[in-house]
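hiii so um. not sure if this is the right channel but i have a protein structure encoded as tokens and i wanna go backwards to a sequence. like what aa goes where. can anyone help
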């Protein structure tokens, strides 16, 4: 087991050691230590409210869960039958209850056990263990989050950003598109790249033309950070809000792009892009004009770093105090979670 230490003084601090990224045990530990204890985006509220399915299946780590909606509101529940562990629901559906197709055990949409055939002589049955486990969940703006064992309430992860985005039009956001990218790199390397604007002049020619590199600003909070990029005229061109450990909310004049960074293997990551627009008449220009090109440029450099961290000659690096505050903060949180 490895313990990780990141000095709180960025001027003295060294980065995470390469073994965090290369050791299989650390990758597996991070699932419970980091991802199970943080908040994950499971869906947008309009997936339920406007399309009106009563049961949907979010892509939530490697834990089978389902979101239900009834007259009492939303529930996030385990999607595993309490009898023999069968997966209960395979596809989104419109239903008034849940029934296991293996042996007929039934639950209501709140996860409460209702009935089970051939169990008349079972002692001390049913009990609370026969109900579906309720998974902590919360709603922020237009989005539903869930957590297996949250280290802190959702508001500590997202609440601080409300005042920073008080003028953003969440109410009129409309889903536009979704796209997945496969990246041959560790999930944390992808996030580290996102968390600093230091690389922009060297990696992103088009984005660098749209942003004033000298005024690029980073703010860090308990479990999140905000990067703000200004155009050459001094207007806000983009705000990049990162929710630890793997959620990226990118705010542009035309709307919102969300990146969900999904660990697959030590050296394989899927990044899901979700695009929402709030003003179709506002053209996608400036910092948010060509997200596909920026993504491919980021992938290329992150995949090169993935190869480099396996070198016998690399272990740790140092931080730029002025340009890598977000990455330093990210590494501090990884150390905090992994050492618990």
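sure thing!! here u go:
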């Amino acid at each position: 087991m490895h313990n990780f230490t990141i000095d709180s003084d960025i001027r003295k601090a060294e980065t995470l050691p390469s073994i965090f990224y290369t050791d299989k045990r650390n990758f597996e530990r991070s699932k419970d230590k980091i991802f199970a204890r943080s908040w994950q985006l499971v869906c947008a509220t309009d997936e339920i409210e406007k399309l009106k399915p009563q049961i949907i299946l979010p892509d939530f780590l490697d834990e089978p869960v389902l979101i239900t909606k009834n007259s009492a509101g939303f529930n996030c529940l385990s999607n595993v039958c309490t009898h023999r562990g069968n997966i209960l629901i395979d596809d989104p559906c419109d239903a008034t209850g849940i029934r296991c197709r293996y042996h007929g055990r039934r639950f209501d949409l709140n996860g409460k056990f209702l009935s089970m055939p051939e169990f008349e002589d079972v002692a001390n049955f049913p009990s609370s263990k026969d109900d579906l486990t309720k998974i902590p969940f919360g709603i922020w703006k237009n989005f539903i989050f869930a957590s297996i064992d949250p280290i802190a309430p959702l508001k500590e992860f997202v609440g601080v950003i409300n005042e920073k985005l008080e003028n953003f039009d969440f109410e009129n956001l409309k889903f536009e598109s979704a796209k997945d990218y496969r990246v041959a790199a560790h999930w944390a390397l992808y996030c580290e790249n996102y968390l600093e604007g230091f690389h922009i002049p060297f990696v992103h020619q088009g984005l660098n033309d749209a942003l004033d590199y000298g005024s690029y600003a980073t703010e860090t909070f308990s479990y999140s950070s905000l990067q703000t990029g200004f155009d050459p005229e001094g207007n806000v061109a983009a705000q990049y809000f990162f929710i630890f450990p793997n959620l990226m909310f990118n705010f542009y004049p035309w709307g919102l792009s969300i990146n969900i960074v999904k660990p697959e293997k030590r050296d394989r990551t899927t990044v899901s892009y979700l695009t929402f627009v709030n003003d179709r008449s506002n053209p996608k220009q400036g910092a948010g004009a060509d997200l596909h090109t920026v993504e491919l440029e980021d992938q290329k450099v992150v995949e090169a770093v993935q190869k480099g961290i396996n070198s016998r000659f690399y272990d740790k690096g140092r931080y730029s105090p002025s340009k890598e505050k977000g990455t330093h903060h990210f590494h501090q949180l990884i150390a905090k979670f992994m050492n618990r």
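oh and The first helix runs from residue 19 to 22.
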